[in-house]
Design a protein that fits this description.
It is a single chain. 30% of the residues lie in helices and 23% in strands. It has helices at 12-19, 24-30, 72-81, 132-141, 157-163, 200-206, 238-242, 245-251, 286-300, 304-314, 327-331, 351-364, 406-418, 433-439, 443-453, 462-468, and strands at residues 52-53, 60-61, 65-67, 86-89, 104-107, 114-118, 123-127, 144-145, 179-185, 191-195, 215-222, 224-225, 228-237, 254-260, 265-274, 318-326, 339-347, 372-377, 392-400, 422-423. An 8-stranded antiparallel β-sheet has the order 16-13-15-14-18-19-17-20. The chain has a 5-stranded antiparallel β-sheet with strand order 6-7-11-9-10. α1 (12-19) packs antiparallel against α10 and α12 packs antiparallel against α13 (406-418). It is globular, with a radius of gyration of 23 Å. It starts with 11 loop residues before the first helix and ends in a 6-residue tail after the last helix.
Length: 474
Protein backbone atom coordinates (compact mmCIF):
# COMPACT_ATOMS: atom_id res chain seq x y z
CA UNK A 1 0.00 0.00 0.00
CA UNK A 2 1.57 3.27 -1.10
CA UNK A 3 -0.38 6.40 -0.16
CA UNK A 4 1.17 9.82 -0.61
CA UNK A 5 0.29 13.32 0.61
CA UNK A 6 -0.60 12.09 4.09
CA UNK A 7 -0.71 15.03 6.48
CA UNK A 8 -2.33 14.20 9.79
CA UNK A 9 -3.36 17.32 11.70
CA UNK A 10 -4.50 16.43 15.18
CA UNK A 11 -6.42 19.63 15.67
CA UNK A 12 -9.58 21.50 14.77
CA UNK A 13 -12.99 20.64 16.12
CA UNK A 14 -11.94 17.11 17.06
CA UNK A 15 -9.41 18.25 19.66
CA UNK A 16 -11.78 20.92 20.90
CA UNK A 17 -14.35 18.22 21.52
CA UNK A 18 -11.72 16.08 23.23
CA UNK A 19 -10.91 18.77 25.77
CA UNK A 20 -14.55 18.89 26.90
CA UNK A 21 -14.84 15.14 27.55
CA UNK A 22 -14.26 13.31 30.84
CA UNK A 23 -10.70 12.04 31.04
CA UNK A 24 -11.43 8.79 32.87
CA UNK A 25 -11.98 6.81 29.69
CA UNK A 26 -8.86 8.26 28.12
CA UNK A 27 -6.74 7.42 31.15
CA UNK A 28 -8.04 3.83 31.25
CA UNK A 29 -7.38 3.45 27.52
CA UNK A 30 -3.87 4.79 27.92
CA UNK A 31 -3.11 2.01 30.40
CA UNK A 32 -4.03 -0.74 27.92
CA UNK A 33 -1.24 -2.96 26.68
CA UNK A 34 -1.49 -3.96 23.03
CA UNK A 35 1.75 -5.95 23.01
CA UNK A 36 1.80 -9.60 21.98
CA UNK A 37 3.17 -11.52 24.99
CA UNK A 38 5.37 -13.84 22.93
CA UNK A 39 6.87 -11.12 20.75
CA UNK A 40 10.66 -11.23 20.54
CA UNK A 41 12.58 -9.35 17.81
CA UNK A 42 15.78 -11.31 18.52
CA UNK A 43 16.45 -14.49 16.49
CA UNK A 44 16.48 -17.74 18.50
CA UNK A 45 19.75 -18.75 20.13
CA UNK A 46 20.98 -21.66 18.01
CA UNK A 47 23.56 -22.97 20.43
CA UNK A 48 25.58 -25.39 18.31
CA UNK A 49 23.01 -25.33 15.51
CA UNK A 50 21.79 -22.79 12.95
CA UNK A 51 19.20 -20.09 13.54
CA UNK A 52 16.31 -18.90 11.36
CA UNK A 53 13.22 -16.74 11.73
CA UNK A 54 10.75 -15.34 9.24
CA UNK A 55 10.28 -11.68 8.25
CA UNK A 56 7.90 -10.91 11.11
CA UNK A 57 9.75 -13.00 13.70
CA UNK A 58 6.68 -15.14 14.34
CA UNK A 59 8.09 -18.37 12.87
CA UNK A 60 11.44 -19.59 14.24
CA UNK A 61 13.68 -22.59 13.96
CA UNK A 62 17.08 -23.88 15.07
CA UNK A 63 17.81 -26.46 12.36
CA UNK A 64 20.81 -28.75 12.41
CA UNK A 65 22.03 -26.80 9.37
CA UNK A 66 20.92 -24.01 7.07
CA UNK A 67 22.39 -24.61 3.61
CA UNK A 68 22.83 -22.21 0.68
CA UNK A 69 23.60 -24.39 -2.36
CA UNK A 70 25.26 -22.55 -5.25
CA UNK A 71 24.12 -24.92 -7.99
CA UNK A 72 21.38 -27.39 -8.83
CA UNK A 73 23.92 -30.24 -8.69
CA UNK A 74 25.06 -29.28 -5.20
CA UNK A 75 21.45 -29.00 -4.04
CA UNK A 76 20.62 -32.45 -5.43
CA UNK A 77 23.62 -33.91 -3.62
CA UNK A 78 22.60 -32.29 -0.31
CA UNK A 79 19.04 -33.58 -0.60
CA UNK A 80 20.15 -37.12 -1.45
CA UNK A 81 22.81 -37.31 1.27
CA UNK A 82 21.12 -35.82 4.32
CA UNK A 83 19.57 -38.13 6.93
CA UNK A 84 17.44 -35.24 8.18
CA UNK A 85 14.07 -33.90 7.18
CA UNK A 86 14.26 -30.93 4.82
CA UNK A 87 12.41 -27.66 4.54
CA UNK A 88 13.05 -25.18 1.70
CA UNK A 89 12.99 -21.48 2.62
CA UNK A 90 12.70 -18.35 0.54
CA UNK A 91 12.55 -14.75 1.69
CA UNK A 92 10.70 -15.62 4.92
CA UNK A 93 7.50 -13.76 4.01
CA UNK A 94 5.19 -16.62 5.01
CA UNK A 95 3.45 -16.14 8.34
CA UNK A 96 2.14 -19.73 8.55
CA UNK A 97 4.56 -22.42 9.78
CA UNK A 98 5.36 -23.77 6.32
CA UNK A 99 9.11 -23.21 6.41
CA UNK A 100 10.44 -24.00 9.91
CA UNK A 101 12.26 -27.29 10.33
CA UNK A 102 14.63 -28.72 12.90
CA UNK A 103 16.54 -30.85 10.44
CA UNK A 104 18.00 -29.30 7.28
CA UNK A 105 16.71 -25.98 5.95
CA UNK A 106 17.73 -25.07 2.41
CA UNK A 107 17.78 -21.55 0.97
CA UNK A 108 17.92 -21.53 -2.85
CA UNK A 109 18.45 -17.78 -3.24
CA UNK A 110 21.77 -18.45 -5.01
CA UNK A 111 19.84 -20.18 -7.81
CA UNK A 112 18.88 -16.81 -9.18
CA UNK A 113 18.73 -14.75 -12.35
CA UNK A 114 17.41 -14.89 -15.89
CA UNK A 115 18.70 -18.15 -17.42
CA UNK A 116 17.20 -17.65 -20.86
CA UNK A 117 14.58 -15.81 -22.90
CA UNK A 118 12.88 -17.02 -26.08
CA UNK A 119 11.79 -14.04 -28.18
CA UNK A 120 9.61 -16.30 -30.33
CA UNK A 121 7.44 -17.66 -27.51
CA UNK A 122 7.93 -14.86 -24.98
CA UNK A 123 8.86 -17.46 -22.38
CA UNK A 124 11.63 -16.76 -19.83
CA UNK A 125 13.63 -19.20 -17.66
CA UNK A 126 14.61 -18.09 -14.16
CA UNK A 127 16.37 -19.58 -11.18
CA UNK A 128 13.71 -20.44 -8.62
CA UNK A 129 15.45 -18.32 -5.98
CA UNK A 130 15.10 -15.11 -8.00
CA UNK A 131 13.29 -12.33 -6.12
CA UNK A 132 10.27 -10.76 -7.78
CA UNK A 133 11.87 -7.34 -8.13
CA UNK A 134 14.82 -9.01 -9.87
CA UNK A 135 12.43 -10.83 -12.20
CA UNK A 136 10.69 -7.58 -13.08
CA UNK A 137 13.93 -5.74 -13.78
CA UNK A 138 15.40 -8.57 -15.88
CA UNK A 139 12.25 -8.86 -17.97
CA UNK A 140 12.05 -5.12 -18.43
CA UNK A 141 15.53 -5.15 -19.97
CA UNK A 142 14.26 -7.43 -22.76
CA UNK A 143 11.00 -5.51 -23.17
CA UNK A 144 8.82 -8.00 -21.26
CA UNK A 145 6.86 -8.19 -18.02
CA UNK A 146 4.81 -10.57 -15.92
CA UNK A 147 1.06 -10.04 -16.45
CA UNK A 148 0.64 -9.12 -12.80
CA UNK A 149 2.55 -8.80 -9.52
CA UNK A 150 1.71 -9.00 -5.81
CA UNK A 151 2.14 -5.99 -3.54
CA UNK A 152 5.43 -7.23 -2.01
CA UNK A 153 8.42 -7.58 -4.35
CA UNK A 154 11.07 -9.41 -2.28
CA UNK A 155 9.54 -12.89 -2.40
CA UNK A 156 11.35 -15.60 -4.33
CA UNK A 157 9.67 -17.18 -7.32
CA UNK A 158 9.67 -20.57 -5.59
CA UNK A 159 8.12 -19.16 -2.43
CA UNK A 160 5.48 -17.13 -4.24
CA UNK A 161 4.40 -20.13 -6.31
CA UNK A 162 4.40 -22.57 -3.39
CA UNK A 163 1.99 -20.41 -1.38
CA UNK A 164 -0.36 -19.18 -4.12
CA UNK A 165 0.82 -15.56 -4.03
CA UNK A 166 -1.29 -13.23 -6.17
CA UNK A 167 -1.97 -9.68 -7.24
CA UNK A 168 -5.40 -8.26 -8.06
CA UNK A 169 -7.67 -7.99 -11.08
CA UNK A 170 -10.95 -9.59 -12.14
CA UNK A 171 -9.35 -11.25 -15.16
CA UNK A 172 -5.85 -11.75 -13.74
CA UNK A 173 -4.68 -15.03 -12.24
CA UNK A 174 -2.17 -15.69 -9.44
CA UNK A 175 1.55 -15.87 -10.19
CA UNK A 176 1.80 -19.67 -10.32
CA UNK A 177 -0.52 -19.66 -13.33
CA UNK A 178 2.31 -18.13 -15.40
CA UNK A 179 4.39 -21.31 -15.04
CA UNK A 180 4.99 -23.18 -18.30
CA UNK A 181 7.49 -25.71 -16.89
CA UNK A 182 9.73 -26.27 -13.88
CA UNK A 183 12.68 -28.32 -12.67
CA UNK A 184 12.50 -29.88 -9.22
CA UNK A 185 14.72 -31.90 -6.90
CA UNK A 186 12.82 -34.89 -5.52
CA UNK A 187 13.37 -36.33 -2.01
CA UNK A 188 15.82 -38.83 -3.53
CA UNK A 189 17.93 -36.07 -5.01
CA UNK A 190 16.74 -36.68 -8.56
CA UNK A 191 16.19 -33.78 -10.97
CA UNK A 192 12.84 -33.92 -12.78
CA UNK A 193 11.60 -31.68 -15.57
CA UNK A 194 7.88 -31.05 -15.41
CA UNK A 195 5.35 -29.51 -17.79
CA UNK A 196 1.67 -30.01 -18.59
CA UNK A 197 2.30 -32.40 -21.48
CA UNK A 198 4.83 -34.77 -19.89
CA UNK A 199 3.59 -34.93 -16.28
CA UNK A 200 0.17 -33.24 -16.07
CA UNK A 201 -0.62 -34.31 -12.50
CA UNK A 202 2.75 -33.27 -11.07
CA UNK A 203 2.49 -30.03 -13.05
CA UNK A 204 -0.84 -29.03 -11.49
CA UNK A 205 0.23 -30.24 -8.03
CA UNK A 206 3.68 -28.67 -8.17
CA UNK A 207 2.58 -25.15 -9.08
CA UNK A 208 1.22 -24.67 -5.52
CA UNK A 209 3.03 -27.34 -3.54
CA UNK A 210 3.63 -25.79 -0.10
CA UNK A 211 7.18 -27.08 -0.57
CA UNK A 212 5.92 -30.59 0.17
CA UNK A 213 6.90 -32.32 -3.08
CA UNK A 214 10.50 -31.23 -3.55
CA UNK A 215 12.58 -28.12 -4.19
CA UNK A 216 12.11 -26.01 -7.30
CA UNK A 217 15.37 -25.01 -8.97
CA UNK A 218 14.25 -23.46 -12.25
CA UNK A 219 10.97 -22.18 -13.71
CA UNK A 220 9.90 -21.24 -17.21
CA UNK A 221 7.33 -18.45 -17.24
CA UNK A 222 4.85 -16.99 -19.66
CA UNK A 223 5.50 -13.27 -20.09
CA UNK A 224 3.82 -10.38 -21.93
CA UNK A 225 5.20 -7.30 -23.70
CA UNK A 226 6.24 -4.62 -21.20
CA UNK A 227 3.40 -2.19 -20.49
CA UNK A 228 2.66 1.00 -18.59
CA UNK A 229 -0.11 1.59 -16.11
CA UNK A 230 -2.07 4.66 -15.11
CA UNK A 231 -2.69 4.62 -11.37
CA UNK A 232 -5.38 6.55 -9.55
CA UNK A 233 -6.00 6.52 -5.81
CA UNK A 234 -9.07 7.99 -4.14
CA UNK A 235 -10.07 8.39 -0.49
CA UNK A 236 -13.77 8.54 0.40
CA UNK A 237 -16.30 7.37 3.06
CA UNK A 238 -16.64 3.60 3.12
CA UNK A 239 -20.45 3.42 3.21
CA UNK A 240 -21.36 4.50 -0.35
CA UNK A 241 -18.18 2.96 -1.71
CA UNK A 242 -19.14 -0.62 -0.80
CA UNK A 243 -21.99 -0.57 -3.31
CA UNK A 244 -19.54 0.14 -6.15
CA UNK A 245 -16.97 -2.58 -5.48
CA UNK A 246 -18.15 -4.98 -8.16
CA UNK A 247 -18.47 -2.26 -10.78
CA UNK A 248 -14.99 -0.90 -10.07
CA UNK A 249 -13.49 -4.38 -10.23
CA UNK A 250 -15.10 -4.98 -13.60
CA UNK A 251 -14.20 -1.59 -15.06
CA UNK A 252 -10.49 -1.45 -14.22
CA UNK A 253 -7.61 -3.82 -14.98
CA UNK A 254 -6.37 -3.84 -11.38
CA UNK A 255 -8.60 -2.88 -8.49
CA UNK A 256 -8.07 -3.03 -4.73
CA UNK A 257 -8.77 -0.98 -1.66
CA UNK A 258 -7.69 -0.44 1.93
CA UNK A 259 -10.00 0.27 4.86
CA UNK A 260 -8.49 1.90 7.94
CA UNK A 261 -10.29 0.60 11.07
CA UNK A 262 -12.15 3.13 13.13
CA UNK A 263 -11.95 5.89 10.52
CA UNK A 264 -14.93 5.20 8.24
CA UNK A 265 -12.68 5.96 5.27
CA UNK A 266 -11.46 3.81 2.39
CA UNK A 267 -8.56 4.34 -0.03
CA UNK A 268 -9.26 2.63 -3.35
CA UNK A 269 -6.69 2.06 -6.02
CA UNK A 270 -7.02 1.26 -9.74
CA UNK A 271 -4.54 0.63 -12.56
CA UNK A 272 -5.28 0.70 -16.28
CA UNK A 273 -3.02 0.11 -19.29
CA UNK A 274 -1.91 3.34 -20.95
CA UNK A 275 0.44 4.64 -23.64
CA UNK A 276 0.94 7.87 -21.70
CA UNK A 277 4.34 9.15 -20.59
CA UNK A 278 5.85 8.31 -17.22
CA UNK A 279 4.95 10.99 -14.67
CA UNK A 280 6.83 12.07 -11.53
CA UNK A 281 5.81 10.41 -8.28
CA UNK A 282 6.17 11.35 -4.65
CA UNK A 283 8.00 8.84 -2.49
CA UNK A 284 5.66 6.47 -0.70
CA UNK A 285 5.00 7.34 2.93
CA UNK A 286 3.71 4.06 4.33
CA UNK A 287 5.60 4.40 7.62
CA UNK A 288 4.27 7.91 8.23
CA UNK A 289 0.74 6.83 7.33
CA UNK A 290 0.79 3.83 9.67
CA UNK A 291 2.34 5.89 12.44
CA UNK A 292 -0.53 8.35 12.05
CA UNK A 293 -3.12 5.58 12.26
CA UNK A 294 -1.42 4.15 15.32
CA UNK A 295 -1.32 7.55 17.03
CA UNK A 296 -5.00 7.97 16.27
CA UNK A 297 -5.69 4.59 17.87
CA UNK A 298 -3.47 5.24 20.88
CA UNK A 299 -4.90 8.69 21.60
CA UNK A 300 -8.57 8.29 20.72
CA UNK A 301 -9.34 4.58 20.47
CA UNK A 302 -11.23 4.85 23.74
CA UNK A 303 -13.88 7.04 22.05
CA UNK A 304 -14.80 5.65 18.58
CA UNK A 305 -16.89 8.68 17.58
CA UNK A 306 -14.05 11.08 18.28
CA UNK A 307 -11.54 8.84 16.53
CA UNK A 308 -13.70 8.83 13.41
CA UNK A 309 -14.28 12.60 13.55
CA UNK A 310 -10.60 13.39 13.77
CA UNK A 311 -9.81 10.97 10.95
CA UNK A 312 -12.50 12.60 8.84
CA UNK A 313 -10.91 16.02 9.34
CA UNK A 314 -7.31 14.86 8.99
CA UNK A 315 -7.34 12.50 6.00
CA UNK A 316 -7.11 13.98 2.50
CA UNK A 317 -10.22 13.36 0.39
CA UNK A 318 -10.91 12.70 -3.24
CA UNK A 319 -8.24 11.85 -5.81
CA UNK A 320 -4.88 11.90 -4.03
CA UNK A 321 -2.71 10.20 -6.64
CA UNK A 322 -2.75 10.20 -10.44
CA UNK A 323 0.46 8.82 -11.97
CA UNK A 324 1.79 6.72 -14.85
CA UNK A 325 4.78 4.37 -14.78
CA UNK A 326 6.01 0.97 -15.90
CA UNK A 327 3.77 -1.83 -14.61
CA UNK A 328 6.40 -3.36 -12.30
CA UNK A 329 7.16 0.03 -10.74
CA UNK A 330 3.54 0.56 -9.68
CA UNK A 331 2.17 -2.88 -8.85
CA UNK A 332 4.79 -4.12 -6.39
CA UNK A 333 6.83 -2.53 -3.60
CA UNK A 334 8.88 -3.32 -0.51
CA UNK A 335 6.95 -3.18 2.75
CA UNK A 336 9.09 -1.33 5.33
CA UNK A 337 6.75 -1.84 8.29
CA UNK A 338 6.58 -5.39 9.61
CA UNK A 339 3.31 -7.07 10.51
CA UNK A 340 1.51 -10.42 10.83
CA UNK A 341 -1.30 -11.23 8.42
CA UNK A 342 -4.32 -13.43 7.79
CA UNK A 343 -5.78 -13.54 4.28
CA UNK A 344 -8.71 -15.60 3.06
CA UNK A 345 -9.99 -16.02 -0.48
CA UNK A 346 -13.79 -16.15 -0.65
CA UNK A 347 -16.09 -17.06 -3.54
CA UNK A 348 -16.49 -13.75 -5.38
CA UNK A 349 -20.26 -13.75 -4.84
CA UNK A 350 -19.69 -13.79 -1.05
CA UNK A 351 -17.05 -11.06 -1.02
CA UNK A 352 -18.94 -7.84 -0.41
CA UNK A 353 -21.49 -9.30 2.03
CA UNK A 354 -18.70 -10.84 4.11
CA UNK A 355 -16.65 -7.66 3.86
CA UNK A 356 -19.48 -5.65 5.47
CA UNK A 357 -19.43 -8.01 8.45
CA UNK A 358 -15.65 -7.86 8.68
CA UNK A 359 -15.58 -4.05 8.69
CA UNK A 360 -18.27 -3.95 11.39
CA UNK A 361 -16.31 -6.35 13.60
CA UNK A 362 -13.02 -4.61 12.89
CA UNK A 363 -14.42 -1.24 13.95
CA UNK A 364 -15.66 -2.82 17.18
CA UNK A 365 -12.12 -3.94 17.95
CA UNK A 366 -10.87 -0.53 19.00
CA UNK A 367 -7.24 -1.66 19.19
CA UNK A 368 -7.12 -2.38 15.44
CA UNK A 369 -5.43 0.24 13.25
CA UNK A 370 -3.65 -1.58 10.42
CA UNK A 371 -5.60 -1.25 7.15
CA UNK A 372 -7.65 -4.13 5.75
CA UNK A 373 -6.85 -5.02 2.12
CA UNK A 374 -9.41 -6.30 -0.41
CA UNK A 375 -8.56 -7.74 -3.86
CA UNK A 376 -10.02 -9.82 -6.71
CA UNK A 377 -8.31 -12.84 -8.33
CA UNK A 378 -9.34 -14.95 -11.35
CA UNK A 379 -9.52 -18.75 -11.23
CA UNK A 380 -6.83 -21.24 -12.22
CA UNK A 381 -6.59 -25.08 -12.26
CA UNK A 382 -3.69 -25.83 -9.85
CA UNK A 383 -4.72 -28.51 -7.36
CA UNK A 384 -4.04 -26.56 -4.16
CA UNK A 385 -4.68 -23.12 -5.62
CA UNK A 386 -7.12 -21.14 -3.47
CA UNK A 387 -8.52 -19.89 -6.78
CA UNK A 388 -9.33 -23.24 -8.31
CA UNK A 389 -12.96 -23.55 -9.38
CA UNK A 390 -14.01 -19.92 -9.57
CA UNK A 391 -13.02 -16.28 -9.07
CA UNK A 392 -12.26 -15.12 -5.56
CA UNK A 393 -12.43 -12.02 -3.40
CA UNK A 394 -9.51 -11.77 -0.97
CA UNK A 395 -9.69 -10.10 2.44
CA UNK A 396 -6.44 -9.55 4.32
CA UNK A 397 -6.14 -8.44 7.94
CA UNK A 398 -2.89 -7.19 9.45
CA UNK A 399 -1.57 -6.55 12.95
CA UNK A 400 1.60 -4.73 13.92
CA UNK A 401 4.46 -7.16 14.37
CA UNK A 402 4.56 -6.65 18.13
CA UNK A 403 0.78 -6.63 18.76
CA UNK A 404 -1.86 -9.30 19.38
CA UNK A 405 -3.59 -11.00 16.49
CA UNK A 406 -5.37 -13.88 18.26
CA UNK A 407 -8.71 -12.26 17.45
CA UNK A 408 -8.08 -13.03 13.75
CA UNK A 409 -8.80 -16.68 14.52
CA UNK A 410 -11.62 -16.10 16.97
CA UNK A 411 -13.62 -13.34 15.28
CA UNK A 412 -12.83 -13.40 11.57
CA UNK A 413 -11.70 -16.83 10.41
CA UNK A 414 -15.15 -18.37 11.19
CA UNK A 415 -16.76 -15.76 8.93
CA UNK A 416 -14.50 -16.75 6.06
CA UNK A 417 -14.87 -20.49 6.59
CA UNK A 418 -18.68 -20.18 6.76
CA UNK A 419 -18.84 -19.04 3.12
CA UNK A 420 -16.25 -21.48 1.72
CA UNK A 421 -13.21 -19.24 2.19
CA UNK A 422 -9.79 -20.73 1.51
CA UNK A 423 -6.65 -19.39 3.21
CA UNK A 424 -3.63 -17.91 1.54
CA UNK A 425 -1.21 -20.73 2.33
CA UNK A 426 1.50 -18.33 3.44
CA UNK A 427 -0.74 -16.39 5.83
CA UNK A 428 -2.09 -17.22 9.30
CA UNK A 429 -4.81 -19.85 9.34
CA UNK A 430 -6.03 -22.95 11.20
CA UNK A 431 -6.83 -25.07 8.15
CA UNK A 432 -6.73 -28.79 8.92
CA UNK A 433 -6.96 -31.98 6.87
CA UNK A 434 -10.75 -32.27 7.05
CA UNK A 435 -11.25 -28.62 6.17
CA UNK A 436 -8.84 -28.74 3.24
CA UNK A 437 -10.37 -31.94 1.87
CA UNK A 438 -13.80 -30.31 1.92
CA UNK A 439 -12.64 -27.10 0.23
CA UNK A 440 -10.15 -28.38 -2.37
CA UNK A 441 -11.55 -30.94 -4.85
CA UNK A 442 -8.05 -32.26 -5.59
CA UNK A 443 -6.69 -32.22 -2.04
CA UNK A 444 -6.74 -36.00 -1.65
CA UNK A 445 -5.16 -36.42 -5.10
CA UNK A 446 -2.37 -34.14 -3.88
CA UNK A 447 -1.97 -36.22 -0.70
CA UNK A 448 -1.67 -39.43 -2.71
CA UNK A 449 0.86 -37.91 -5.11
CA UNK A 450 2.89 -36.51 -2.21
CA UNK A 451 3.04 -39.97 -0.60
CA UNK A 452 4.15 -41.49 -3.89
CA UNK A 453 6.95 -38.94 -4.34
CA UNK A 454 7.96 -38.71 -0.68
CA UNK A 455 6.86 -41.90 1.14
CA UNK A 456 9.21 -41.23 4.06
CA UNK A 457 8.02 -37.66 4.63
CA UNK A 458 11.43 -36.15 4.01
CA UNK A 459 9.90 -32.77 3.13
CA UNK A 460 7.39 -32.66 5.98
CA UNK A 461 7.44 -30.60 9.16
CA UNK A 462 4.87 -30.81 11.98
CA UNK A 463 2.51 -28.34 10.29
CA UNK A 464 2.50 -30.14 6.94
CA UNK A 465 2.29 -33.58 8.53
CA UNK A 466 -0.82 -32.49 10.39
CA UNK A 467 -2.34 -30.89 7.28
CA UNK A 468 -1.81 -34.03 5.19
CA UNK A 469 -2.71 -36.48 7.95
CA UNK A 470 0.72 -38.05 8.25
CA UNK A 471 2.66 -39.31 11.25
CA UNK A 472 5.55 -37.14 12.27
CA UNK A 473 8.41 -38.40 14.38
CA UNK A 474 10.96 -35.64 14.90
Amino acid sequence: MAINRRHFVWGGAGLVAATSLPVAGHVAWGRRDFARPAYDPIPPDPGAEASWMNWSGLQRATPVALEFPSSEAQLAEQVAATPYRIRPVGSGHSFSPLAPGEGLMIDVSALSGLYGYDATTGQARFGAGTRLFEVAQALNEVGRALPNLPDIDVQTLAGSFATGTHGTGNRLTALHDYIVAFRMITPRGEVVEVDAARQPDLFQAGKVSLGALGILTEVTLRTVPAFRLHRQMTIEPVGPFLDRIEALGETHRNFEFFYSPGTGLVAWLVHDVTDGPVTPREAAADDAFLDGLKQLRDMFGWFPWLRRQIASQSFPRGRIEDVTDESWALLSTTRPTRFNEMEYHLPRAEGVATLRKVIRLLDQRREAFFPLEYRHVAEDPAWLSPFQGGPRASIALHAAVDERFDYFFRDFEPLYRAVGGRPHWGKLNTMDQAGAAALYPDFNRFRELRREIDPDGKFLNPYLASLFGERFDA
